[in-house]
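User: Hello, can you help with two protein structures?

Assistant: Certainly.
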Amino acid sequence: MDKVQVIIFAANFIAIFKNIVVYAIIGRILASWFTMGQGRPSNRLIIFLHDITDPFINLARKIPHQIGMFDLAPMIALFGIDLLGQLLVSFLYSFV
């Protein structure tokens, strides 16, 4: 593999990873609507979504993230992941 193929592979990997995390956060948001007031869920899929998305959402919770009763940490995490992913991919493509 030459340098260009490695850079394209890394850019595609970052883009796919970003999409997986974004979909996991969206799934966590949707699941939270159906499990309101239950605390930590017992469903394996929802636990898996929490385990994947907790690092990103906990990082977003370190900045002010509430408007009234609405928790905006998942939206901040989505914005940050999208921004960081686009910056990394464009940085990698600048070497091609």
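That covers the first. Now for the second protein you mentioned:
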Amino acid sequence: MQTKMILAALVVVVLSVGLVACGGDDASNLKQIQQQRSGEYVVALLSETGQLKQGPNTFALEFRKASDNSLADVGAVQLQSIMPMPGMSPMSGGASATPSGTPGRYNVTSDFEMRGKWNFTVIYGGGQRVLIPINVQ
């Protein structure tokens, strides 16, 4: 009976360690969509496919120090996505960023109504901003 309890406890420990090792905010499997330097930071958009598509998307936003490429916490982040429409008012797309749990990395959800070139503006660090042009497939 005691052997079964020890074996069950060991299985729980092994599974817990495995879940911690496999889960979390590992961005090593993400591909870069686009990046832009802004002051002392390099701001990058990343996704599993390296592309954004028409309709709802989820992807990552990273802030790295340009000096050493380390992730950098920039505080609250706001997003704006605008598609210029010649001869018409620009189209707005919804986008929001939430901290991922890893300082400097944010989870982004967006909805692009049309394919084409969009201007993705990232506002961070108390008013700094960077414009990242993206092509939505």
